[in-house]
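Sample entry was shown:
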Amino acid sequence: MTSADAVGRISTRLLLLTMLGVAAEERFRRWHLPWKERVCDDVRPFSHGTVFRSPRHPDFWEYNCIRLDRPMEASEMIAAADRELVDTAFRFVDWTIPMPDRVVGELRERGWVAQPLIYMLHDGRALPEGRDELVEVDYDEVRELRDIWHREDFGDHTESETFHAQAREVAELAEVHVIAVVEDGRPSGFAQVETHDDGSEVAQVFVSPERRGAGLGGELTAHAIRVAAEAAGEVWICADRDGRPRQLYQRLGFRPVVETGVAILLPKG
């Protein structure tokens, strides 16, 4: 199947689903929400959502968290995270509904990394082919770039070796593809595509600091979209709600569907 065939298949599927009256937000929830339940061994409800725990992946914070399906005040959220994640060195909360900006602001004032996010769905448009240096590589071939990204996001608060091992194990529960731009024999940027349940996500796009501003992020994202389109009927991406990458993704054919977010209290030390 060619890239043009794949994106054409997505366009046809989106049209049919719209005609059937199935909203994009509902399709997102059917695809995205059950995945964490599949990974985690301990899933239980609480007053404002769900508690997820994965003893097999204790250092992969996203799978040891609470998820909110309705808003909470910052103080209530912190108390719930302290109660449900008492045996972890971190706190991780995600939400699948819009969270008031004042709550996000108060979390930041109290030392949390809080970020409103937006999930976006690709509209199926064809994208031009990229440079020859974009190739699919083994998951661990971009490990140095993963380490740089991890330090940029979390500093020295975490031990990255166990995190990366557990992250790979979870990623490989889905169909995972890693695309890298290789210059002078070394990766200088990569994108990761994860596919499950007839949906693909461009889950990561990262460019090394010294190569930013050269258009590599856009080329990697476009190539990842083509790979994702060949693997599944819909292609999703998550962006900071108010960040610059969202503008790039919109130019590449993504449209906003669902506002979500995360809040993380990093380990001390």
Summary: The mean pLDDT is 90.
